[in-house]
Design goal:
The chain has 309 residues and is mostly helical. It is built from 10 helices and no strands.
């Protein structure tokens, strides 16, 4: 065997070792280079995502839980009107993730979508806090049974802040859970098993934030004033942003994959065309290409499993 052959073997060995060091799902690090398994993602990155979600949920429920009470006692709205306005606002909060999902999957990526919309979210929290803190932005106190209604000038800052918050939730709700899932390599069986545990901790973080806001924050609002009661959720939203950015060097990133509407149409069309095909026993035959690279540009393969059979 000549020296050239030995060199080729050494190069092949080095390439195999390098491929084992990197994730198999095409994820990148914060420098936009292939992510190294032992330096990025996995549980080392998840505490920042879970902390971000806990503080964000605490901020959201700190506003939403007691909002009807604020509208009726401080802005002198009727119960029906206040309940209707809060319901419309909450419904908007659950519709705006459609905007965040399209931007994240098609253009910005999940990290930057969370970052930008979190800033919007924080801005809305600050506007809401100012509206509850400045005396001129609230109507005069009730005199007996006579309660002067709020003027349009007093309504606008409050509702403007609320709907800025609704827009901000769109990028956060749509992306945080999937961004956490991106930290685990689907091609690695050990990391894939840890992903289920992450989902459990994610929902624990949501409920922890909700419990704290529904108890402590509501108590502050009822006993120490609404300026402080809305200011604390704004503070926690700012803390949420700080926690999220602190983990940047540890995250794994997936490239945006283009318009999700196009991908959805491709799936529907392929499903119709292949509805009569027999599923092969060998799962490797389900892939459109024999190696780890997806046939869809800027995408990675979803690993086959039998969990939902």
């Amino acid at each position: 065997m000549g020296s050239a052959d030995i060199t080729e073997l050494d190069q092949g060995f080095l390439q195999d070792e390098r491929s084992k060091q990197h994730t198999g799902d095409g994820s990148l690090d914060f420098r936009w280079k292939p992510a190294i398994k032992h330096n990025t993602g996995n549980w080392r990155a998840c505490p920042f995502i879970l902390g971000n979600e806990c503080c964000e949920r605490l901020a959201f429920f700190g506003i939403a839980t007691n909002l009807v009470t604020y509208l009726t006692t401080k802005l002198h709205e009727g119960n029906v009107s206040a309940a209707r306005n809060v319901s419309i606002w909450q419904g908007t909060c659950y519709l705006t993730p459609l905007i965040g999902a399209v931007l994240a999957d098609g253009y910005w990526g999940r990290y930057w979508t969370i970052a930008v919309f979190s800033m919007i979210y924080f801005l809305g929290m600050c506007i809401l806090t100012v509206s509850a803190s400045v005396p001129s932005l609230k109507p005069a106190e009730c005199l007996g049974s006579v309660c002067p209604p709020a003027s349009p000038v007093q309504y606008y800052p409050l509702y403007f802040g609320l709907y800025v918050i609704a827009l901000g939730t769109g990028g956060v709700k749509a992306c945080v859970l999937s961004f956490g899932a991106d930290q685990f390599d689907d091609t690695d069986s050990k990391e894939r098993a840890k992903k289920a545990s992450f989902f459990n901790w994610y929902y624990f973080s949501i409920n922890l934030g909700a419990i704290l806001s529904c108890s402590f924050i509501v108590w502050v609002q009822d006993n120490s004033g609404w300026g402080l009661g809305f200011g604390l959720p704004a503070l926690f939203m700012g803390l949420s942003i700080g926690i999220f950015f602190s983990g940047t060097s540890l995250y794994r990133f997936q490239k945006p994959m283009g318009s999700p509407i196009t991908r959805m149409c491709q799936v529907v069309l392929a499903s119709v065309r292949k509805q009569n095909l027999v599923v092969p026993e060998d799962s490797s035959l389900l892939y459109e290409m024999p190696d780890k690279i997806s046939g869809v540009e800027r995408s990675h393969k979803l690993m086959h499993h039998d969990d939902l059979r």
